Amino acid sequence: MALPETLLLLLLIAIGAGFLGSLAGLGGGVIIVPILIVLFHVPFVLAVGASAISVLATSTTAGSAYVHDHLTDLRIGMFLEIATVPGALIGASLTIYLSKAGLDPYLLVALGGILLLTIPGSLLGHHDEIPQGVVPDARSRRLRLGGAYLDRRLRREVPYMAARTDPALGVMFGAGLVAGMFGIGSGVLKVLALDGALKLPMKVSTATSNFMIGVTAAAGAGVLLAAGYMNPVIAAPVALGTMAGAYVGSRILPGLSNRLVRYLFLILMGALAIELILRGLGLQ
Amino acid sequence: MNPPSAPGPATPWTREEIPEPLPPAAYGNMAIVLRAGLLAAMGLFVAGLSLFFLEHPGEDLARLDSVPYFTRYLDPRVLFPALAAARPGAVLTLGMLVLVATPMARVATGIYYFHRHEEGEMTVVTATVLALLLLGTLVLGSYLAHLG
Questions:
Q1: Distance between CA atoms of A279 and A149, rounded to whole angstroms?
Q2: Which B positions 89-148 lie with beta carbon below 8 A of chain A?
Q3: Which of A165, A229, B24, B86 has an alpha carbon within 20 to 30 A of B61's alpha carbon?
Q4: What is the ipTM of this complex?
Q5: What pTM did the predictor assign?
Q6: Is residue B18 part of a domain?
Q7: Closest by Cα among A280, A276, A282, A284 to A31
Q8: Is residue B126 part of a domain?
Q9: pLDDT tens for each residue of B46-90
């Protein structure tokens, strides 16, 4: 297939991935890498680079709206980036190193495994919208990791404080590592830290996670770009497509019941994950 | 000298512990930085892809995977003359650089506002995040590019 047709197809698939990812609440990044590898035969490390750029573009689009609504907690986001950014730098470096060493099959199996492990986490809902009885640890109190936002539905101001910072930093390092290695947002892990360890209100958790996904993706994408593992002819249409799809998805989301879409998306993700594992094991 | 701070008591917090929010301008300016960076990057992507199609109508995607076609544009001495000549690879590479730099610019905006808000520890935390981001792109990436 000639390049214009290939890239047009890539753009259309990226629009679909961004659209479905947005409706499913997972982002399109989780299926972009497998699609590029399976359908377009793009080398692993270049697929990771293109996906990181698309995650960066999509989270920047949503992030500008969240920041504007004052829902993003900049203190907590910046504090946790101390863990995610080194994780992403190490993750992207590992992918480059392993790819140079000819270990792509292991990376395929690892990504497939990560995607399969993401599925149960994606089916779990958030915790209570506004957690009660939160006990901040010493670091949270010292850095004053808390804030307040105006909840339009509840029609009142909701104050909050972060609870346990040590486990949150640990999970965030892992989230950064996975994001850097595989070019995905790893929002499931980030929400695990923000919801489970810090016990933030759901709206703050979602907005802050989005803020962090952008900064973490920039860390991984920066390493891949500077090391020469980013092909803009692949990454640009993927970024344009996922962003456009995610934008349309977010516009029609309020009018849809997204449970069915989420299940379909997870089935597609599971099938792609199994395909990656089979390829990595040389069974495909 | 003050004694080292003891661990905080394991009691629920009070409203007084909630910090004052950053001024609305901080959020507004961060949103502007994000939107400006995103629009610039997307504009460069569309322009770069259009130029690329005009120059390379029969190019094969697989060949682009194996050739370090774009790496040369990471050198500013090559990038800027190529941009002046409207080279598609240079335009696309600039779009990538702008997109990667956009969250970094937001972090830099955070440093400015935490400093103005006299939050010393948060200024240091945010500056460390920016330093790590720059270190990754400018030092680590270049090192990995030259790794055998």
A1: 48
A2: 89, 92-93, 95-97, 99-104, 106-107, 110, 114, 121-122, 125-126, 128-129, 132-133, 135-138, 140-142, 144-145, 147-148
A3: B86
A4: 0.88
A5: 0.90
A6: no
A7: A276
A8: yes
A9: 999 999 888 877 666 666 555 456 788 888 999 999 999 999 889
